[in-house]
Amino acid sequence: MEKLTHKTMEDFAKSCGVSRPTLSKYFDDPTSVKPATRALIEAALRSSDYQPNLYARNLNRKRTRNIGILVPALTDPFYAEMVNRLELRLRNEGYWPIVFSSHGLPELEAEAVNTMLSLKVAGALVAPLGQKSDPRTFEKLTQNLPIVYFDTYIEGNTPFIGNDNYQSVATIVEYLCRSGEAPAYLDIPHVNHNSPERLASYIATMEAAGCEPLVISTNASYTWEFERIGYEQMDGLLRAKSLPRKTILCANDRLAFGVMAGAFAHGLKIGRKKGDNLRIAAHDDHPLSRYTCPPLTTMAQDFAAMTASSVSTLLTLLGDTDVPTQPIARKVSLGGTLVMRQSA
């Protein structure tokens, strides 16, 4: 049966036999109208092609049900996984997520912030670029709406939920030292606070174990193309026959993907079995890490806890939670979990 056509809310309200304010109240919160009225409206919706313009309705409110999510790069598997989880969690809480990527560029990060403000989002979950961010951009954002940083942050009092890099890197360094040769550390450009924290933890843990830290500094300037610089770094080391150790701990999984490809191109066999040429480990447990060849040994960040804590903190700031109000932790550091696979 062909559905009825209604172009405006007034037309649809008349068809339902309810007033426009009642219909508007239903779209704000279906439980706010009488059960009989709700059943009447929902029956009419099933027989009609009418869709309310939620975007326009939100713009007319002082506070919308939209939540901004801003990340440095949606192509990064870590951020893609976090965005996926945050979107689903926010939808379950009755909010509409709007996702922005700064593509590694501070000017696009500032543009995204301005867009969120113009859309009058209720709040925002933000993973800023870090070193290249303009602090004034986020001062403007925090002055206008509640925000929570995840994964990385801008200095200040804004709540932050992220990985405990000191604990996680120490855990994997200790494992590598126990199970074989002590690792050299392949660094990346320090795009945010995670990079120097991981480097510092590597050095401190190696020294505590009585091992000499050996850092392979990156030869790349600021970039988010970690796979490329990993490949080029490994290729250069192998061509020059200057690879310092046969165990390499990479600053993150994306760097390790490039390192593994570079080693393969030179005919090296990666793994922890007798006869393998090289052990490679990393950090993050990106969704693709289990599918590398061989699967990558890494430290898993707690995606579930980071998602839950980020959303619950933002809902508390918005006053939209049934949980009794508790002091908001300004920094939540989540421990990582060692995932042992075949690469190290």
UniProtKB/TrEMBL annotation:
Provenance organism: Rhizobium multihospitium
Gene3D superfamilies: 3.40.50.2300, lambda repressor-like DNA-binding domains
Keywords: DNA-binding, Transcription, Transcription regulation
Any one Pfam family match given in the protein's UniProt record, by short name: LacI
Domain HTH lacI-type: 7-61
Phylogenetic lineage: Bacteria, Pseudomonadati, Pseudomonadota, Alphaproteobacteria, Hyphomicrobiales
Presence of the UniProt keyword tRNA processing in the record: no
Coiled coil: none
GO MF, any single term: DNA-binding transcription factor activity
Protein name, as recorded: Transcriptional regulator, LacI family
InterPro entries for this protein: HTH_LacI, LacI/GalR-like_sensor, Lambda_DNA-bd_dom_sf, Peripla_BP_I
This protein's record includes keyword Chloroplast: no
Listed PANTHER family: HTH-TYPE TRANSCRIPTIONAL REGULATOR GALS, LACI-RELATED TRANSCRIPTIONAL REPRESSOR
